[in-house]
Design a protein that fits this description.
Length: 363
């Protein structure tokens, strides 16, 4: 990872600094669409490989045996919420920027060094942090296909950049973060790949998993998450990394076309529980073209319409995001699934079926 950071810091990037929406495709040579100001162009950069867990459908997987209990403890009377919008009605979303050769590469003074990657990292001169009270920012380097994500980002009194964490993801790789390491979210997962982005919805298809939050989680994480922080040890609460989907019989045809695209993605690809926050709140990128009235329709989707899936058959290596594409529900006996290595002082939890589960020990 350090070599990648040095490489990213030393090579020139030819793109122009932009804020926009980026869409992964299923093309043989992975490309993505970057849209800014109503214009778009292709860049040769995937949002993780096609067989990554983020890009793998889960509509045929079995329901996890703890699904009912988890939903009951995730505000069972609540409804889906869009944590993004046009910005005109208050909802902003998770902003990101595209770096170029002129984007300064700086060293950030970090408070959680052990959870962070090191080296000079790109931060634009005026990043869109005004709508991010927690200082979360995603910066994409399209030439190197590196994603930089920061939390707690701010300037100190001397004008130097400070932050809580800094994480770097190679978008061409399946490599997950080190076990027990967080990122800009509590699960240690990237934020950008799980965003709802306007260009995808306008194109009529989202072909990746989304991310969402809930107020209470167990102090445990399961693949592909890498970290958990909570004071709850009750097995009835969900672990970070849990993947939920919208039930197949949910009547999505009763919603507007943009909402149908989002709901269909939730049926086919689901959403990862990635952080602590508002109940059933999915993340998205801000865009002035969002129709906030249409997005508000998502609030009609009840919590009872969701179920957690058992991703066990997809696990190939708990340290990689690669998902097995050659299995279906029931094809893989439990004994054949590689167990996650247990960290020193950690113990496996009995609250999840997945052998890729980790429970953070009590202090």
């Amino acid at each position: 990872m350090r070599k990648l950071l040095l490489l990213a810091a030393s090579l020139s990037v030819l793109a122009v600094l932009e804020t926009g929406c980026l869409v992964a495709t299923d093309a043989t040579a992975p490309k993505s669409e970057v849209a800014t100001g109503g214009a778009s162009r292709s860049i040769a950069c995937p949002i993780f490989p096609p067989n990554d867990v983020w890009n793998t459908p889960i509509d045929q997987l079995l329901v996890d045996e703890h699904s009912v209990a988890y939903v009951e403890n995730m505000d069972s009377s609540g409804h889906l919420q869009a944590g993004f919008g046009s910005g005109r009605t208050g909802e902003w979303g998770s902003a990101y920027v595209i770096a170029d050769a002129n984007t300064p590469r700086v060293s950030i003074a970090l408070t959680q060094i052990d959870d962070s990657d090191r080296g000079a990292m790109p931060i634009p001169k005026n990043p869109p942090l005004e709508h991010s009270p927690t200082g979360v920012l995603s910066v994409l380097d399209p030439q190197q296909c590196l994603l930089y994500e920061y939390s707690g980002l701010h300037k100190d009194a001397d004008g130097e950049w400070n932050g809580t964490t800094a994480a770097v993801f190679d978008l061409r790789s399946h490599i997950l973060r080190r076990t027990g390491t967080l990122s800009a979210d509590q699960a240690g997962m990237p934020i950008f790949p799980g965003l709802v982005r306007y260009e995808e919805v306008a194109a009529g298809s989202i072909t990746h998993a989304l991310r969402f939050t809930t107020p209470k989680v167990r102090k445990m994480f399961i693949w592909p998450a890498r970290h958990a922080e909570s004071n709850i040890y009750d097995n009835a609460y969900p672990p970070l990394g849990a993947r939920f989907r919208l039930k197949a019989n949910f009547p999505i045809n009763q919603y507007s076309q943009p909402c149908q695209v989002i709901l269909r993605a939730l049926q086919n690809y689901g959403m990862f529980l990635a952080d602590i926050g508002g109940a059933w709140t999915i993340s998205g990128a801000p865009d002035p073209r969002w129709n906030d009235v249409q997005l508000a329709e998502l609030q009609r989707v009840p919590a009872s319409a969701f179920e957690m899936v058992d991703e066990q058959p997809l696990v190939s290596d708990v340290n990689l995001g690669i998902a097995r594409q050659d299995v279906r529900p029931g094809d893989l006996p439990t004994a054949e699934v590689p167990a996650a290595p247990v960290e020193s002082g950690a113990k496996a939890s009995t609250g999840s079926k997945s052998p890729a589960a980790k429970e953070t020990p009590k202090n």
